[in-house]
# Entry
Amino acid sequence: MSDDFIDSNVFVYLLDENDSGKQRAAQTLIHSALANGSAQISFQVVQETLNVITRKLATPVTNEDARQFLNRILSPLWKINPSRVLYQRGLDLQACYQFKETSRVHGAC
# Structure
C-alpha cells in the first residue's frame, strides 16, 4: 500500500460536471487507486464527500447513488480511522511544525 492520500475534493470532481479536465483527472487517479491499491482515504474524507455529493452539488446524487458510491468507490480506499494514536500523531506534528492559523513550516520532524 502506498502512502498516497486522496482528498475529498477529488471524489467531488469525479461527480461534478462543471470542469471536465478535473473530472478526467479524478477518474484516472481514482481508477488507478482502486485497481492498484495505490492510495487511501480517511473517515473524514468519507464524511465530507458524502455530505457534498448529497447536498452541495448542482445536482445532488440520490441516497441510493450515494450508497453505491460509498460501497464501490469510497469503502475500498477507506483505511484511516480515528484512534488515540492518530490524534497523538496529529498533536506531535502540530507541535513540531508549530501549526497555527497563519503558520509556516519551521523544520522537519
User: Anything to note?
Assistant: Helices lie at 8-15, 20-36, 43-55, 63-77, 84-97. The first strand starts at residue 41 and ends at 42. Residues 8-80 form one domain. The first helix runs from residue 8 to 15.
